[in-house]
Amino acid sequence: MVDNGQPSPWWSATRHADRKPFLMARSAITRAVRTWFDEQGFTEVETGILQVSPGNETHLHAPRTEIIGHDGTRATRYLRTSPEFAAKKLLAAGEAKIFEFARVFRDRERGDLHLPEFTMLEWYRAGASYDAVMADTVVVIAHAAQATGIGQFSFRGRTADPFAEPELLTVATAFGRFAGIDLLATISNGEGDRAALAAVARPRVRITDDDTWSDIFSKVLVEHVEPQLGQERLTVLFEYPAPEAALARAKAADPRVAERFEVYACGVELANGFGELTDAAEQRRRFAADMDEKERRYGERYPLDEDFLAAVAAMPPSSGVALGFDRLVMLASGALRVDQVVWTPPAGET
Prior knowledge:
Helix content: 25-40%
Number of strands: 17
Order of helices and strands: HEEEEHEEHEEEHEEHHEEEEEHHEH
Strand content: 15-25%
Low-confidence stretches: none
CATH class: Alpha Beta
Shape: globular
Number of domains: 1
CATH topology: BirA Bifunctional Protein, domain 2
Number of helices: 9
CATH architecture: 2-Layer Sandwich
């Protein structure tokens, strides 16, 4: 304790010593992961943080700033929520296998699993299916565990063996198994039928009049599905419904679903990957719809990055994945919260 009776700041010798084992684990994991990417022939890149658009997903919020030119002109910029836009411009430029330990920023996020500033490990393979980055993700997670020597991940009473063969589970199967919902029956022509999903989900989640199909989907996912994932081993949850495709392409054999996957351990989402959409017109349509919804909900919208949309049309078929590196370190080091595994916690916190 300091003299005024308040808790010691995070940089006090005692509190830093408590966190030191987790920070050493972070360094070991970083080295191991970098070595693996190097062995696979990836190039490490470092892309810009200040962006014209921080991303165009409805529920992601970015800090906003202003840059002043040498002539005094002012321009709005955003701190990125992901390095995805810049990375895809590099794919369009001819890079084939890239990765980045990216600092990213998100407003409205703080908790045991969330920080307003954090590290996202993101990588892309040109000319590869999303099965390839699924496999990458499982290997990267195992390398993290191997780097610390941990035998199993644990979080809030749940455990998972990072070295075991992962469970492969479609979203539709998961909704049927854990919530008794035939999810695909509520999708047609790539759109969700709000009334149909509300009818089958109402006994399981609270639904309000202004909930969209996606809102109801998210409530069922969070309350009934996610807690069951990553139990005893990793779970790869794949074939997300088309209304939740984000930046993923539709599955050719079944347009009701998209080439999107997430990886879970102990109920914790670790990674989100795509078979990347290369149809710029479709990407523009999705972004515009998401920004309309953001404006309706939050009274704000972000501009579209026209340079990015041009890159989408120029980039080759690719796959990519974003992994929450702080969360991975938390599980592989035995920490209880992500703020224990970052060298400097969020500014302004003790």
